[in-house]
Known about the structure:
CATH class of the largest domain: Alpha Beta
Number of domains: 2
Shape: globular
CATH superfamily of the largest domain: MutM-like, N-terminal
Distance between the termini: 28 Å
Number of strands: 10
Number of helices: 6
Radius of gyration: 20 Å
Mean pLDDT: 94
Order of helices and strands: HEHEEEEEEEHHHHEE
Low-confidence stretches: none
Largest sheet: 4 strands, antiparallel
Strand content: 15-25%
CATH architecture of the largest domain: Alpha-Beta Barrel
CATH topology of the largest domain: N-terminal domain of MutM-like DNA repair proteins
Structural class: alpha+beta
Amino acid sequence: MPELPEVEVVRRTLEPHLVGASVERVEVRAPALREPLDADAFERHAAGRRVAAVRRRAKYLLVDLETADAPATTLVLHLGMSGRITVRAAGDGEPLPHEHLVVHLAGGRRLSFRDPRRFGQAFVLPTADLDTDSHFAHLGIEPLADEGESALDGAHLRRAAVGRRGPVKPFLMDSTVVVGVGNIYASEALWEAGVHPKRTVRRIAAARWERLAEKVREVLARAIAEGGTTLNDFTDGEGNAGYFQVSLAVYGREGEACPRCGEAVRRVVQAGRSTFYCVGCQR
DNA sequence: CGTAGACCCTGCGCGC
DNA sequence: TGCGCGCAGGGTCTAC
């Protein structure tokens, strides 16, 4: 469900509910995720703290926690394929299906983390250790970062492709190159840029890298503006659906007419994931 | 070192 | 109506 835009939409909707709130306790309801939840760590590093900020790095949601007498910590949440994070009102007490973690806030509201497929993650660590933590140490640049040294541009993609082979679509999804580009938006950005998903990264010229970088940023920004893509069950932190799926040009549209040239959209599997593209206008 | 494939899970929609 | 199959937004590990 969630690529970068969906996580950013969740972040933005959670932020006003969480910043300034106090964490009374963290309840581990079902510890079995791929990395089992550590109730002791939550108790030691999250309980009794105040939310200072809600940030995002790649597809990770970062809830910064502070207290007067200890260094800052960060609650890290990843939605995997099927995770959902919502704020529940005080008194709304029914346990939800697949609810793994409940963060109880002062006043009775709760932050609820659900994940049927259990590919998600939840852990807490000192904020100072974030950059060196194994989940973050090898991450590439943020595609929507401001202009500057680490902005996503054609030169960044071209440099990252040096010495590599293989098709451009999995390359775009490689989080050591650029983060946040998942299976939906990789197909969409390639279609927007007119680049064939199977094209080898060694045969892409500077101008096309530039166009591709631009389209990646554009597609992600548009998806955020439209509240994220909802295929089955994505909702923001307040439980609202997103609308970007109506804007998808090729993803999930095998056999339908390409909006640009009318050719039938095709589906292939690359690196185990479905890719949708148009032979008429992607070269 | 870089890349391809298997794998971790549950739920849903489709065709029979 | 009910059932089995294929497929799903992510990431990591192993084998080449």
